[in-house]
TrEMBL record, chains A, B:
InterPro entries: CBS_dom, CBS_dom_sf, Cl-channel/antiporter, Cl-channel_core, ClC. GO terms for cellular component: lysosomal membrane. It is a multi-pass membrane protein. Its main location: membrane. The chain crosses the membrane at residues 150-171, 200-220, 241-266, 312-335, 347-369, 398-417, 437-458, 512-530, 537-561, 581-605, 617-636. It comes from Crassostrea virginica. One of its GO terms (molecular function) is chloride channel activity. It holds the Pfam family Voltage_CLC. Belongs to the chloride channel (TC 2.A.49) family. This is Chloride channel protein. PROSITE patterns: CBS.
Amino acid sequence: MDEVQTVSLAGGEKEITVIPHGRNTRRPSTEEITVIGPESKFHVTPVSEEEHELNNRVPSRPTPELKFELDDEGDTLSNHNSITALLSSKFRDIQKRLKQYGIESPRFRKRLVSKWESLNYDVCENVLYIKEQEKYKSKKWVTLRWLSKWLVMFSIGIMTALLAATIHFVVEKLAHLKFDLIKHYFDDCAKNNCLYQPALMWMGINLVITVAGAALVTFLQPMAAGSGIPYIKSYLNGVKIPGLLTFRAFVAKTLGVVMSILGGLACGKEGPMAHSGSIIAAGLGRGRINFCNGKSISFYSAFRNDHEIRDFMAGGAASGVSSAFGAPIGGTLFSLEEAASFWNQDLTWRVFFSSMVACFATNFLISAINGDPTKLTDPGLVRFNAFKFDLKFDLIEIPVFIFMAVIGGLSGALFVVMNYKLTVFRKRYLNKNWIKIIEAGLVAMVSAAVAFGLMVGINDCTDKAPFDSHAVTAAVYCTDKKHNSLSTLFLTTPEGCLKALLHDPFESHGPVSLVAFVLIFFLLGVWTYGLSVSSGVFIPSLAIGAAWGRLVGIGVAHLMPENPNLGVNSSLIKQLDVGKFALIGAACQLGGILRTTISLTVIIVECTDDISFGLPIMIVLMISKWVGDFITTGLYDMNVEVMGIPTLPFECPPLCDDLRASDVMSHPLATFKTKEKVENIYRMLKEETFCGFPVIEDDPMAPGKGKLKGLILRNQLLVLLKKKIFCPEGQVPPRNITIKDFRDFYPVYLKVSEIDLSDEEKSYVMDLKPYYNPSPYTVEQKFSLPRVFNLFRGLGLRHLIVTDEKNMPMGMVTRKDLAKFRVGSKRGLVKIEQLKIEDK
Amino acid sequence: MDEVQTVSLAGGEKEITVIPHGRNTRRPSTEEITVIGPESKFHVTPVSEEEHELNNRVPSRPTPELKFELDDEGDTLSNHNSITALLSSKFRDIQKRLKQYGIESPRFRKRLVSKWESLNYDVCENVLYIKEQEKYKSKKWVTLRWLSKWLVMFSIGIMTALLAATIHFVVEKLAHLKFDLIKHYFDDCAKNNCLYQPALMWMGINLVITVAGAALVTFLQPMAAGSGIPYIKSYLNGVKIPGLLTFRAFVAKTLGVVMSILGGLACGKEGPMAHSGSIIAAGLGRGRINFCNGKSISFYSAFRNDHEIRDFMAGGAASGVSSAFGAPIGGTLFSLEEAASFWNQDLTWRVFFSSMVACFATNFLISAINGDPTKLTDPGLVRFNAFKFDLKFDLIEIPVFIFMAVIGGLSGALFVVMNYKLTVFRKRYLNKNWIKIIEAGLVAMVSAAVAFGLMVGINDCTDKAPFDSHAVTAAVYCTDKKHNSLSTLFLTTPEGCLKALLHDPFESHGPVSLVAFVLIFFLLGVWTYGLSVSSGVFIPSLAIGAAWGRLVGIGVAHLMPENPNLGVNSSLIKQLDVGKFALIGAACQLGGILRTTISLTVIIVECTDDISFGLPIMIVLMISKWVGDFITTGLYDMNVEVMGIPTLPFECPPLCDDLRASDVMSHPLATFKTKEKVENIYRMLKEETFCGFPVIEDDPMAPGKGKLKGLILRNQLLVLLKKKIFCPEGQVPPRNITIKDFRDFYPVYLKVSEIDLSDEEKSYVMDLKPYYNPSPYTVEQKFSLPRVFNLFRGLGLRHLIVTDEKNMPMGMVTRKDLAKFRVGSKRGLVKIEQLKIEDK
């Protein structure tokens, strides 16, 4: 029956073997064709007679053009005729034009990395669990459990706020000291012609602090690099990220971010707060701290499973965001939108509660730092709400805002593209620890040098007092009580710079200074993001946008006639409205870089503290997202893609109705019998990397072909082997084991190499019945991919067993089997791409 | 084996038959005991040998006390020993004390009404669907479909805003006319001693308009009564509500709410906006308007299925809320939090978009009505943002706010309890249409009479100009350019009253007026909610709260020493802070009555337009919710319970681990073979009320016992019968049918009585293969209830087939089978109650 055909492929002519099944009246489908070529992974599945018949009942079903493309980036398969080609062809035109100008849209690596595993969100209802649930049915336990969940959430909020306030205090004080020192040298040396002194000092301070910070992160826990938000989002999506929630990561993250900012890098402390809050939550949830020296303190173990920890972590991330931006609602949404499949109102209330506690406590602490703890006017570390006048907008300004949103989208996409190129470069060439540290130091020095150069070179003098009365202003060459206008932007933290751009008077910053600032800060931002230091990208994005938004404001002020009836009046703008344009610019730039979701929209609105003005902010955020998405993905998504983390989208990619569970499942399966020889288990764990094994009925007539009885996890088997819960055949297992024994190993389970078995023990038998999950979710092989996807995503599964009609396991669908399908487009056709799964 | 035992039950001694299975070492479980008593519905399921063995492996598993209680309100079963008894015993104490004071906590009817069906959210992937999907794979269709979804959402936003602005304009203008008229008579007659004239006139106007409004609602579409929010929430939860989204409901709702407010009822127009927006969305989504006279206009049919309509409706409800309160984020959350299981980011963006469009268009239109369409300062119908000074709060005020929240929770619970009693009374005695209309008229007259009485009786004169310069103020007996302070509260719409309470100067309203107002408005609010008129409960709740909040503010002002260091300074309060207390009071009262969820919190914060002050609002909303929940459910939930709508909670009730799928499923099943005789189908549809039928393999050896092949819906079968898609055995069906033929019947499918079949036709055979869903979700019988629940809720299912190990259907789990389990508590024990399912 097999036919070898020669087919025209992207990479030249290839031979493929087409194996048609059944009658010829059927259209060929992917199930029936095995493509034999490099890296092809399709397999053959026999099609049932009934399905065959079904297909024949659709006479009008057209025979689609089959197109196979195998290219250097993985196997891609599109057997559907052209879709959304209208959009994609336009997209292609733009790409071509971009190429002409040398700006190439990136092709993200089409791969997933196999090391990323799913969380075990699904509860394993084995006999041990039911036994424990019995205990919890006493009133004492239920009340205690309920109360402790709220108490943990409360503690998460309080501790996150404490951390936020401490970091805020330390950074502000030390940064002020540093810049005050530099300013004095600056002003003295401008007179005495020794300007090289402050320049060298500045670069020296930056270098030392940044190198220390980079070393801390690089050697203690590399997971603490960057803002951590891509990791947090992936974790909430259901991916286990080893090392993310450890004490080492906490130390590296919190100390690191202080050093990064003091080291003069273009970064903020807000993104890292979400990560720090998550670590606090995980630590409190587990009730155990593992110190760096291998010791640990343990308090309680009741919540030690992925399900509970993930819920607490949602509270921690929300608290972090809430502390950072004074945005309790935005924080709650931040945590929950990624975790959509698990949203429920009870959890939402708890997350909201911790988020509110964090916001309130931060407010209290920062007010206390500022002198009066009862004032309660600073609910977050960053606020945009110090506008002197009400933020009002007029219909006539909307087109200007939309224009700005388009700019924001385009420049944001440029930011992402440049950073992507840099990331790939770093992965290839700068992958040694000492090189990473040197690079960070270099960036810090260049930041200082460039800032110095601009301040001296442009020498833009102004006599307008800056908005912040504590701001450090250097005179440099300015006289008559004037000061260098760029000094208020560079002799401060990036946050102070953002605030100055938003709130300083109209005349404070001239167009030349602003243009120079935008260019420099944009490049520094691109260079800084992805360094091996703890840093956030929120504040630099906002500052870049605020600077060019201010430019637009100045432009509008000069273009508009001085007609008070028109609503936009230049003298009015001069008085109050330039900050408004700066704010819109900041939102546009952030939207373009991060592709704000609903939660980020709410965060910015909460941060601005003005809901009427929220409407234009929402509009520009949406438009900048659309414009940016047209060119490339957002910065966080780019990060996730580069790392090959298999996050699941919210919906199944389109055009997958033809694919069946049997097409996407991994197979063959490794299965165990309900009573399995220890040797078999040990060997299987050693040889295979599977994390879950179906348990099947022991059918002596057809060995290895029994009905599905349940699912057992690798972690469970390792604990059982370690605890030696087995016995010679026919005897009763000697020891008892409770669910707490499993928890003691959470979250870092054993490795198979840590298990030592004698030859006699290997001949024993393990009874898996009390331990396996007796009701794993299953689908039949003929289920379509969208249905499989909905089930998997909706229930937050890790393993979904595919069975045949007789309830015998045929294969397993895991996260990677679903995440590898992605919509791509090529030459006017929309196609489903299959990402490669690589080991590194 | 059967044993008849006499067991002590709540209603005296009863005989029950206990049928134990298997060995005696097993603890008896619900599966094994059949309670034979009145209304009991438990059934016997054989337990597999393996499960038997499993249970025996848990030696420490205690034998629980089995407790069976059958009481007058339905069968309740608690076989778990005391849980959360600590909480529930305290709850019980409070209940007892409340009883001593004559305030009894209500026992909501423990029942579900069988007429409520689920939506078909799950896509039926039959052959017809796959055929249609093929068509949509062309670029034209995909682009068109994508664009039209956004376009429909845009239109929903625009039309909702148009409606909102129109209602606003009409109500404001006419109400002003009405009250101006009354005021003139008032002022004239106070001098001429003919006050009975304005009183009678007022009552007369109210009577006529309200009776007209009530008649409209009662006769045109009773579903339009009330705010519609409980129905909308149920619909979003997945319950089909017939008549809710019809053109009749739209007319009754929109005209009705105008009449209710002009008729002087204590109600608002905000809740109804959510309902109106939903109807607009459903109409636009279906692309068809069915007019009252039976005619209809049809535009397109692509979105005619429950899945798409539900998504559009989420946009409509969000737009309605957004228009009403200027709260685009709150509106989005309102729609999506109830629909949590179906949340995905793509839909979220669309809903947010329509919500934003609605907000923006409302802003534009209302600004235009107010004279300048480019000002854009009124994003919603109701705003609390006209405070003259910044809303600041001080730590020292938090205890006062918490105290107020407790009051709000308690009085809110009282509101719900009283309204519940009234609702039950109405259901029993006031269930005729003409009585309903008379009651509405009576309430309108009493509202006028009481307002008149208070104004004349208290005669509280003030010379402070009201906040709203257009407000109608009557002098009545006041002289010296003073006016009656209550006239600013009563001679206006409830919205105007709320605004006056929030923003009027400190001296405007004296304590006596306020106390009288609170009492009267509370009682009127209770009486009005549930009348057969179109009305919202938001505004009256807020007004009651604002009034007593103002009282608290006055009290605080008088109690506090005039010490400026203390933060709360009475002279300060007099100047600016009384409105703050009014706002907090309003939030507390709303929280107590409605038990605000996250979305309502956001709505109020957005409405206040001040996020710093959002924090105390969030706190009081949470506390008032907790206090209220301790006593009774919220008003909307009470409504849902009284109507017996089977909404599903977010999580499975606790303590259900012991229940298996086989315990909760409905059985026996009505099944069809893949090729079924028309007569059988017709008879089954006529005799049974099932909405879905499993299709099984035709096994000649064991008839009626085949493997599961798929699931076919009642609606599909009715269409197939109507279109006569059958033929004599062995022939090919004569006609073709497409998925569009099914859509033409959406959403009002045929009744079986509309189908006419000859005897010859009845002997024909229908081939169900192309029509049934070939991959329905199934669970095995041993799945625990929490797992069944998660699957059902997470995927938004309507039918979940329970199979045995051989994949043969055993029973069906539907929404009511899960919704009937509810946690209750009785005599210190927490128990799982099973609600009765009744026909009416």
